[in-house]
Design a protein that fits this description.
Elements lengths: L1 H9 L2 E3 L1 E5 L5 E7 L2 E9 L2 H13 L5 E3 L2 H12 L3 H6 L5 E2 L4 E4 L2 E4 L5 E4 L8 E4 L5 H11 L15 H18 L5 H7 L4
Antiparallel strand pairs: 1-5, 2-3, 3-4, 6-7, 7-10, 8-9
Helix pairs in contact: 1-3, 2-6, 3-5, 6-7
Length: 197
């Protein structure tokens, strides 16, 4: 269980820095440390290698990062309530009953083969359900609802619910960097922790 909370803390972090291609084909890493922009002395052979180096610097505390806390609750609720990606981003405040410690799944976003993302019914009839929420994350949900969600009972759990594709893309980008942070070394292992796949 501690690993889930650790992962939830990592999701939503983004390094403050960038990678630029040099005239000779190498890649230079610029990063922020304690509010000051710096340039790494090493030159990476590939853009991916330089980006992974930036994530490693964040992990080691040698580079600053931004942290979007909204994703923490997304990971915890998806994990402990066993919800699918589309079900998670379709949730509204009215679907969460903290007193009864339940989540009602009544809709889901689905990505069509065309790339279009639409709101519809869950995958199957059994997909419409009420799921228990473990007490261990109730306080996290209360905090999330108080900080990130409008007073409207139909409001969704993120500010960007109108653009689920953007959330999905952001989670993919963030979790691709997490592969290094949680020790995944190859693409297949990285994909298993990606929220966007």
């Amino acid at each position: 269980m501690a690993q889930v909370f650790e992962l939830a803390e990592l999701v939503g972090r983004r390094p403050v820095g960038n990678v630029r291609q040099l005239a000779d084909g190498g890649y230079r890493l610029r990063f922020q440390q304690n509010g000051e922009v710096r340039t790494a002395p090493e030159v990476g052979r590939t853009r991916t290698g330089a980006e992974w180096a930036l994530w490693a610097m964040v992990r080691d505390g040698r580079a600053d990062c931004n942290h979007d806390q909204r994703y923490r609750t997304l990971v915890l609720l998806a994990t402990f309530a066993s919800l699918r990606w589309g079900e998670m981003i379709a949730l509204g405040c009215c679907d969460i009953d903290l007193d009864a410690e339940t989540v009602r799944v009544r809709a889901a976003y689905v990505e069509r083969s065309t790339g279009e993302i639409i709101l519809g019914a869950p995958k199957s009839k059994a997909g419409r359900r009420i799921v228990g929420i473990p007490r261990v994350i109730i306080e996290e949900l209360q905090h999330h609802l108080a900080v990130f969600v409008k007073a409207d009972p139909g409001a969704h759990g993120t500010r960007s619910h109108q653009i689920p594709g953007m959330i999905k893309a952001q989670a993919r980008e963030t979790s691709s960097g997490l592969g290094l942070l949680v020790g995944a070394g190859d693409e297949n292992r990285t994909r298993t922790i990606s929220l966007g796949s």
